[in-house]
Amino acid sequence: MSSLEVSEEVRQYLKTPTFDNWQWEDAEIMVLLQVMYTDLDFISTFNIELDVMQQFLYEVYRRYNNIPFHNFKHCFCVTQMMYGLIWLTDLRSKMDSIDLLIMLTSAVCHDLDHTGYNNAYQINARTELALRYNDISPLENHHCAVAFEILEKTESNIFRNLSTEQFKRIREGIIKCILATDMTRHTEILNKFKALLPVFDFSNKDHRDVLMMIMIKVSDISNEARPMDVAEPWLDCLLQEFFNQSDMEKLEGLPVTPFMDRDKVTKPSSQTGFIRFVLFPLFIELANLFPCLELNSNDEEIHCVKNLKAKDTTGKTTVFRHLSILRFWPILLPCLLSSNIQNTHLSVYFITRQTFASVDFSYHEYI
Question: Would the N or C end of the chain have less CB density within 10 A of its end CB?
Answer without folding.
Answer: N
